[in-house]
Amino acid sequence: MRLILTLVCALLLAASPALAQERDGAYWTQQNDIWKYAYLTGVLDGVVTGGDFSQPVLSRGSVALYKPDQPCVEKTRTTYEYNTSRYFFGLSLKEFVEGMDAFYKDPANKHIPVNKALRVWAMQRKQVPEANEILDELRKEWAPGN
């Protein structure tokens, strides 16, 4: 059922002329819950896929150059597992949607893209000291006129 809902939402999104615009807080607040759940499902699936892509799986005969580097592989996997388990583990999709709704109630966050807001929101809820500094940087970077 979840897969069907995700596919239907993806098809609707593909037909949307708004797809070309940045999905920021202004866009987020105009969407219904079905869109929000589908979008965050995709983002979270992308987090898992990103973890998979961070691991070398290419053989020596691949077109891409591959050099075994076990320390690098271990650091990448450790960083990925630490961050995803620290910030995302144990949260329901509903908590993510409600978290983004709350995040975008602050007008200063309106122009921050959802995919960037999700990380800083997750850091804030875990009271990571750097979260406020990152949020300030995002507000500056995505302010109108930049």
Concise overview:
This protein has helices spanning 2-14, 25-28, 33-53, 70-87, 93-103, 114-125, 131-141. It contains seven helices and no strands.
List the helices and strands and how they pair.
Blueprint: H1 2-14, H2 25-28, H3 33-53, H4 70-87, H5 93-103, H6 114-125, H7 131-141
Please characterize this protein's 3D structure:
It is built from seven helices and no strands. It is mainly alpha-helical and 146 residues long. The longest helix is centred in the N-terminal third of the chain and has 21 residues.
Q: Give the number of helices.
A: 7
Strand share of the residues?
under 5%
Order of helices and strands: HHHHHHH
> What best-fitting shape do the alpha-carbon axes yield?
globular
Percent in helix? 55-70%
**Using only CA atoms, what is the Rg?**
18 Å
Average pLDDT reading = 83
Number of strands: 0
Q: Compute the separation of the termini in Å.
A: 41 Å
Outline the low-pLDDT stretches.
none
Largest sheet: none
Structural class: mainly alpha
Keywords, please?
0% strand, single chain, 146 residues
